[in-house]
Structure prediction request, 120 residues.
Amino acid sequence: QVQLVESGGGLVQAGGSLRLSCAASTRTFANFAMGWFRLAPGKDRESVATISWSGGNTIYADSVKGRFTISRDNAKNTVYLQMNSLKPEDTAVYYCAAGPWYSGSTWDYWGQGTQVTVSS
Prediction:
C-alpha cells in the first residue's frame, strides 16, 4: 500500500506561483510513475502533468504547458508541481497519484488532494 500526502496548496492572486509537494510512504517510490491531476467544480478530472519513474519523461496538459513544471526527488520520495503564472481557471483540488506508466491511464494510488484557489 502506498500513501500519498499532498501539501502546498492555498490562495494566490492571478500571476502568482505555488509549489505543490506530494510525499509518498513507500520504499519503492522510484518504481512508480507519478502524476498530478486536478478537479474543478462542474468539470471532469484533468491530468495536469505526469512524470516517469526516472524523471526523464514528462507529459503536460496543453492548458499548463510553459507554466507548470513537474519534477521528482526519488531520494526524498517526493514529487513536485511548480505552478507559475497562475490563472483563475487553475482553481481546483489538486491530487497526486502513483501508477505503473507515466503515459498510461492506470493510477493505483491517490492522495487526499490540496486546494488551489487563484483569485482574479
Remarks:
- Residues 70 and 85 are 15 Å apart (CA to CA).
